[in-house]
UniProtKB/TrEMBL annotation:
Pfam families: MFS_1. The lineage of its organism: Archaea, Methanobacteriati, Methanobacteriota, Stenosarchaea group, Halobacteria. The keyword Transmembrane helix applies. Residues 1-404 form the Major facilitator superfamily (MFS) profile domain. This is MFS transporter. The chain crosses the membrane at residues 23-45, 57-77, 89-107, 113-132, 177-197, 220-243, 255-278, 290-310, 316-335, 381-400. Keywords: Membrane, Transmembrane, Transmembrane helix. It comes from the Archaea.
Length: 409
């Protein structure tokens, strides 16, 4: 049964949430702080390119270093969460994120910067499996998709804030100030979360659930395969929107930041809105989320293909805002879908596997996108993402066909 556990002796009972809304808000704040640190790296790409004199392709390798640290650690972290609970892992993760975000500002060379962002990515590996486990532990089943969508809004909110604040900081006092501020916020939120959260402090789980357990399920394999292609679209969009708007549209870095922030804001709306639809308009959790994921992937493919044909800055902003609702708004229902086909005691490792798939797409796609930009231009690069999300759409259709109208839980 989903819901908070009994409070530990000596805990500050008056500071702990007493309803699913309170726990959702607490998990959301953690996610905003963590994503603000992580996605600040994406927002700083134009300034890194200028400061270190690197090519667009090398910016892709910077994003790959960030995702490599994330990807290498996410599966082991998911296993730790299933064994020992999410509370301690989330506290350690946000502490490390804040400290490493500050460390990035001290990187004096491009190789050192690569190393720093790789460590930052490693600490961010605690975010998605940890907060997903928290939602499944603390939130009642009838509110699960909405709560998951609100929690996932923290990713787009943190990224959107970084997209606005890093360029503004860079234009006035230097981008480093924004990174220092993100580190300070992470430290404050870490303390607040440690004091208030008490839904995942149970005994260690020795059941042996791991990612290998889930790989034997063909539906799970198809789902994470689709996640690979959606992850390619998601992270490449976040990583290259600023550069595209400044390089091709010819707008200022502040307008480019506003464009990415608009995409992130609509992504937040999409995460909550699609979650509400999944809770209220369909029958089984698995089928509802699969149908919505197919819609999100299909519309994303169409919008990626349309980007090369749009030129006026305000129209570009509107297109990216619409795109954000779909390619940045799918993760809440994606994790709910994963959680619906695995046992509760394996949610940490299962969603870590889903995140591993998204991250794997993010490892491959940004350098490929950057190479196509340097070699052939942005038109072919956006077409690559349209093809990737089309493959995800086809995989979701296969899953829907396999499921029919049945449900597992």
């Amino acid at each position: 049964m989903n819901g908070p556990t009994e409070s530990a002796p000596g805990a500050a009972l008056d500071l702990q949430p007493r309803s699913w809304k309170g726990y959702t808000a607490l998990i959301l704040v953690w996610q905003v702080a963590a994503s603000g640190c992580f996605y600040a790296v994406y927002a700083v790409t134009p300034f890194v390119r200028a400061q270190f004199g690197v090519s667009t392709t090398r910016i892709g390798f910077l994003l790959t270093a960030l995702m490599l640290g994330y990807t290498v650690c996410v599966a082991p972290v998911g296993r730790l969460i299933d064994r020992y609970g999410e509370a301690r892992v989330l506290v350690v993760g946000l502490t490390g994120l804040g400290a490493t975000t500050v460390l990035v500002t001290a990187a004096s060379t491009y190789p050192r910067l690569l190393g720093a962002v790789a460590v930052l990515g490693a600490f961010y590996a605690t975010a998605i499996p940890g907060t997903n486990k928290a939602v499944f532990n603390a939130i009642p089943a009838e509110r699960l998709n909405v709560s998951m969508g609100i929690k996932q809004m923290g990713v787009t909110a943190g990224s959107g804030l970084s997209s606005l604040l890093v360029p503004l900081s860079a234009s006035r006092v230097g981008w480093e100030v924004a990174f220092l501020g993100a580190g300070a916020v992470a430290a404050v939120v870490t303390v607040a979360f440690r004091v208030c959260y008490d839904a995942g402090t149970g005994d260690a789980d020795e059941s042996g659930t791991s990612l290998r357990t889930h790989v034997g399920d063909p539906e799970y394999v198809l789902l994470v395969a689709a996640g690979f292609f959606l992850g390619a679209g998601l992270f490449t969009t976040v990583g290259y929107t600023l550069l595209y708007v400044t390089d091709v549209v010819g707008a200022s870095s502040v307008f480019a930041g506003a464009t990415l922030a608009a995409a992130q804001a609509s992504g937040s709306v999409g995460r909550i809105g699609f979650g509400w639809i999944a809770d209220n308009w369909f029958g089984s959790l698995t089928r509802s989320t699969l149908v919505l994921l197919a819609i999100q992937a299909g519309v994303s493919a169409i919008l990626f293909a349309a980007i090369p044909f749009v030129e006026p800055p305000l129209v570009v902003l509107g297109l990216f805002a619409l795109l954000g609702a779909f390619i940045l708004g799918f993760t809440g229902v994606y994790y709910s879908c994963i959680g619906s086909i695995v046992p509760n005691d394996g949610i940490g490792s299962a969603t870590a596997g889903g995140q591993l798939a998204l991250n794997s797409g993010a490892l491959v796609a940004p350098p490929a996108f950057g190479y196509l930009v340097d070699a052939r231009g942005y038109d072919d690069a956006w077409t690559l993402l349209a093809c990737a999300t089309l493959v995800a759409f086809i995989l979701f259709l296969v899953l829907i066909g396999r499921r029919g109208v049945g449900r597992r839980r």
